[in-house]
Amino acid sequence: MSHPTFDQYLMADHRACDEHLGALRRHANAGDWGAAQQAFATLQHDLLAHFAAEEEILFPAFETRTGMRNGPTRVMRMEHEEVRFLLEDLTEALSTQDAEAIRGHGEALLILLQQHNMKEENILYPASRDAVGGDLASLSEQIIQRREAA
Ligand SMILES: [Fe+2]
Ligand SMILES: [Fe+2]
């Protein structure tokens, strides 16, 4: 896909982050701490960049065009905060090589992300596509650029 729309792009990114989380949990269970650390670093970087693209570009575009500032984007921002806390918990669990804590926090993150991503994919992304109308291509380009910025 040379020019994906933002929803296609962000949905593929959800799947990729699921894979990184799966790798983290597998490597931690196996006691392979080097690989677990590497999977976590990728997961953390990609999730935070994904959230930045949503919070800084997509959500404001939705809020401006619909006038809804206390609706779905507010819930999504709160869930992003919960994910950030779980990433901190995982950072700590990795630093002490605490496999049990990684299992618990990893499971919590998996469930939270599944529910969060489903709401975005089924509700917020389609509603945002409707709201932006003819600006879809330029908005998509901005979102992808922000996601891929270092
Ligand atoms: Fe999100
Ligand atoms: Fe997302």
What brief labels describe this structure?
mainly alpha, Four Helix Bundle (Hemerythrin (Met), subunit A), binds fe (ii) ion, single chain, 150 residues, 0% strand
Structure overview:
With 150 residues, this protein is mainly alpha-helical. It has a single domain, classed as nmb1532 protein domain like (Four Helix Bundle (Hemerythrin (Met), subunit A)), CATH 1.20.120. It has five helices and no strands. The chain has helices at 6-29, 33-66, 72-95, 99-132, 136-148. Helix 2 runs parallel beside helix 4 (99-132) and helix 3 packs antiparallel against helix 4 (99-132). The chain is elongated. The model has no long low-confidence stretch (mean pLDDT 97). It binds fe (ii) ion (FE2) (2 copies). Residues 51, 54, 76, 80, 116, 120 line the site of one fe (ii) ion.
